[in-house]
Amino acid sequence: MSKFFLIDDDVFITRMYERVFRMANHEIETVNDGPEALKLLETMNPLPDVIALDAIMPKMNGIDVLQKIRASERLKNIPVVILTNSINKEDAEKFFELGANLFLIKMEQDSMEIVRKLEEVLRIKNK
Amino acid sequence: MIKLKSIKTKLLILFLLVGLLPLAVWGVFNISAARQDLEREIANKLLLFAEAKEGQVYAFLDSIKSRTIDFSSDGFIRDSIKEIIKTRSSRAVQDLNQHLVKNKQSLDPTLAGILILDLKGKVVSATDEKEIGKDEANDEYFLNGQKEVFITDDLLGHQFIVASPLTDKETGELLGVLVNVFKTEKLYAVLSGELQKQEGALTSSLDQAGTLEIYLVDREKEMLVHPRSTQKTGEYYFIGIKIDTLPVKKCLENKEEIATTYTNYAQQQVIGASMCFPQRGWTLVAEITTEEAFLPIVEMETRLGITAAFLIVIVILVTFLIAFIFTRPIKYLHEATEVIAQGNLTYRVNIKTGDEIEQLASAFNDMVQKLEESHSGLEEKVREKTKELAKKIEDIGKTNKSLADAESAMLNILEDARELEKELAEEKESVERKVVERTRELGEEQARLMASLNSISFGFIIADTTHHIIIKNQAVAKILGITDESMTMVNISGIFQGTVNLLEQSERCIMERRNIDIPEIMFGSKFLKLFIAPIIMIRDHNEVIGYVLLFQDITEAKVIERSREEFFAVASHELRTPLTAIRGNSEMIQDLYKDKIVDKDMAGMISDIHEASTRLIGIVNDFLDVSRLEQGKTMFKKEPVDILPIIRETCKEIEPLAKAKNLVLTFNEPKETIPLALTDSTRIKQAISNLIDNAVKYTEKGTITVIVEKDGNSVAVSVTDTGKGISPENQSLLFRKFQQAGEEILTRDVSKSTGLGLYITKLVVEAMGGKVSLAKSALGEGSTFRLTMPIASR
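ok -> structure tokens follow
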């Protein structure tokens, strides 16, 4: 069992993945905006094994959240997977430059596949 | 001083060549011959030496063998062993041990120990009591020693083990095995020659050589015996090291004994000889380093060098002496010529060497004598010549007079020319009048042209080949925001600095005689489209006389395009998110709560929700695909692709769909070789898949046939179906956006199509430099769609 942390402004998405990850026997915590996510991460214990991050969010977008995570001594080694429905490949490159581990388009995967890919990211990291 | 080109230098070189060259040739030849002879001689000596050592080793082996046989026939030992086997009396054992130590081991200081084994391989008696009771049943020497006398091949613990059968004196029955353990020291002494010296036997002259090594190597190519290991170091340093050298290899592979030069185990160049012990797998090697072997050659070389040095010194001395004798008179002669050259014709040389040089000096003196005489004759000649000159000057005075006559004739001709000039001036006046009239007409024409140019919204400039602006309209100033006065091509080009080099582009347009289209450049907050076309005068041998430059303000069009892009981006995100949730949740219900949904209608409804959301996602994806393709935002790879496996795979994927409709889907494998296509493998698969998928969708019965062929510079894929065909009026609309071919022609399942499939296929294929078309279609007979892609050039 691993711990996942999902940041997505859409409650449909967070609720759905809460169910999916729980069914896959994982611990999952979700939050619907960037500042709240960063606040939670500051005190979260234990830290999540993988962070899944939406690219487009109202208060603070994914790029800014990722930058904050990578700048933090405490959080910088946690793998971050970008989950988005934006299809702009240039965006993907920007995220990779900032240290994202994977870029997934939500609509192109079915939900169990997303779980498998996040597990894979964790497996590679632990290697 | 030695000058490079002096006689001295030349003589020196000559003498050195004559003296030293033969010496060098002779030296090199002799040394190499001597070296070969020496190598052969030493190799032969080593071979003889090794042979002698081989004999000595055999003799040593024989001696320890006969010693063991001798022991085995000892009556006391035979009787004791019989008793021990029968009674197991410890007393008998003790007696026998005593006997072995006192009467046997003492015979030979190199005898390390004696063991007696019974027929089970157990030690029953030994010089060392600790050995008694040990089980040696599986040891080589026990197994072999029951049959005959046996000597071990490898020297475990630096000992030779020799085993002999013990038999009953009367019956000849086998009682056990007698084992003698010999120290190897004696063999070291044999190899080193120490033993022979002690015994006063003859030793070889080679024993004196410092680098001589003689050793035995076992069949595992490991050092077995090396005399130096005990003689000097007292340790077994050499033993067991790997000896993978030429003689060992030859001996183990071909049983060949050699005497030659090679690299030994210590990576030294050596001359060596080998002897083989084929039954034991041993190689005896005797070797000496080439460095030591060739010491006489080195001495010879040193002597030759000293001789050469002496010779050089002598040659130099002789050269200086000869040069001194020959060059001194020549130097006098040289000094004399310099004095005479300065005008002193009375100077004479005085050389009395009595040889050819003296003759040369007297001839020189004669010559100077003649020179002195002819010099005095010359002064007379000068006086005569001066007289002749005075006469010539007089003649020139006469010629001048006739020149003055010619001048007056010239003046007459000039007057005629002036009259002609007047006539020409009159003619010119009438031409000028005509020119003025024509210019006025041209002015009116130009005004009309300018009025029409000024009425268009494009910026319009005509410039000549030196970038001098000839015509411009008002829109140029308006679009670029500069005044008419400062409008030169250099200034305009300056405005665009950093985005496009306008002068360079214009230059290219003139040079390459072709249009240049710059579809979009930023200019402040505006977007401009630029177009440069060369002006070619067909009348004047197609000469390029300048260019036309057009600016179009496309800012508004860009704004519209951009807002459309934004719309798509937003729409994609906003539509995709809830759709993902609908699909994801309905999928989970179906996957994980199947058992809980008992109601058939409810299951149907959930299935419909899932299917509808899946289809809707497909539609959104198609829309976005189109949007990106239209904006040219989709990236295509262009690489050589083998199209055959892609078609096979696609057919395999669609096959189940065709089977479900009872259709036959076949791919006719081509007989000819299909070249590689230059395309994007993922994208081309999408296009081919789309065509086959359509054919399956819109055919109710019959077959779908896929063929691939080479067509000129293209690879062509055709998909033929036996559907209802497409009417001519619908054919032209087929590849348009959102086009549906019409239900009256194709029995089409509208719910399964967005009407974008063929349009996307067309955009994809064309973006990769190919074409897609309806090759033929007849109502009621079916259709053939055809797709091409360029061949990858090698």
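The two ends of chain A are 17 Å apart (CA to CA).
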